[in-house]
């Protein structure tokens, strides 16, 4: 399904016979008559490598946000309201009614094609381990449910009919004939004209049978229509589970493809903690006094990782190499100029002379900013501030080092003490953080604390429509934490700005 570039084609011609198995797919265009899909048929049309990667990243962004909604116990209504603008932006899926004269026009086809391909690409990325498969199936089912519930009634019926699920609608005559039996076996329904039923093999609804919520007769279960959604969801999950098992068995063949393996590897890592990029515009914070003298005051807006580095620096008048690197990059990311950054470090290292500072530390700070160093140093722009993913997964701190993420690298007791020292005393929040950390959801714990510390301001921007859900998505970059915190706490004088790093 990938359109290869010329150099890849040349290389593929020489590949061994086993790789030709990938070329045996039948290429045909999907016409996507329905908005929703159970993803039974894999896509076989060509797409570019760029589409392959960006579509997958867009879907991953949606799945990660949905998962974090469930981690934070958002109600279905809150989740739907939160997700709607993000879905519209990254993975739109319009109803047929949005097309002219009921035709599935090109825009609808493009949306459905992206949805179809991105689902299958992530299947490849997340079928490697049982844990990933389980998580992927769970969140994909959540996404499917969200879309199913907001589907137009007529289209939903047409979609369900198209599934050929062998559900026989019970005729009015049969309904009347069963009468009291049907009512007696279906809790919550008092009159026959209140509901319709359909028949399926009883083995397909084990949960309903187990909880005695359906009538069983001659091997058939009589299921009320109101249970249809949950049955479709069960069908969706069970087909996806099987599909993922099959994909897992095919995976070793993909290892031979040096174009896709790195992309898939990157995607599966992103599932643990979504990654975020950083561009120069992310550091602009209109009206903020970002200078060396102001860092102590600004540190109230820092996430715990950077607060810890700042406090350690103030206590020891020194930070070790990785701590200096992580912190310098962050300070650069909040918009601190090179001159101010040099001044900040010089003043912070009170126990050394100017001479030592100039010899041992000045160069590194300039290098991070791209002021010195060769072409490799990102053509004069220096290095990008670290994302949560990088901090969580690379260079764990050793003894005496202060870099890393406290949610990931501190013991629960030390983390709790540190949170309390920074003013987090709410027992419910601390309990939630402990649970998140035990389940290895480090960035969710960080977001939990952020939401608690800014709950008044978040309510205000939501209630007054100042910020949309996209501006309040899950934080996955320390610089987003800072920028969002600063803007929320200075709402009256801050113009509207984008508060996210690039995903
Ligand atoms: Fe810092 Fe990210 Fe850890 Fe929060 S989750 S403390 S922002 S590394």
TrEMBL record:
BP GO terms, sorted: DNA replication initiation; DNA replication, synthesis of primer; double-strand break repair
Domain (DNA primase large subunit C-terminal): residue spans on this chain: 299-482
The record ties this protein, via CDD domains, to: PriL_PriS_Eukaryotic
Q: Which cofactor does it need?
A: [4Fe-4S] cluster
Q: Which Pfam families does the record match to this protein?
A: DNA_primase_lrg, DNA_primase_lrg_N
Can you quote the record's cofactor note?
A: Binds 1 [4Fe-4S] cluster.
Q: Mind telling me which GO cellular component terms the entry cites?
A: alpha DNA polymerase:primase complex; nuclear envelope
Entry's Gene Ontology molecular function annotations: 4 iron, 4 sulfur cluster binding; DNA-directed RNA polymerase activity; metal ion binding; single-stranded DNA binding
Which amino acids does the record list as binding [4Fe-4S] cluster?
305, 388, 405, 446
Q: Which family does it belong to?
A: Belongs to the eukaryotic-type primase large subunit family.
What functional role does this protein have?
Answer: DNA primase is the polymerase that synthesizes small RNA primers for the Okazaki fragments made during discontinuous DNA replication.
Name of the molecule in the record: DNA primase large subunit
